[in-house]
Fold this protein.
Amino acid sequence: MDIDTVTARFCERHGLAMPEDIDALVDLHIRAIESWLDELTVSRY
């Protein structure tokens, strides 16, 4: 999972600005993956 691609799509989907700071980028990337996993979990039940 490419950090830039995943984060850019998450930002686009949620109307957020793409972070310029690497720490903020990593934090948002983790948030994006967690959101994706939550969606998978919800769709299974």
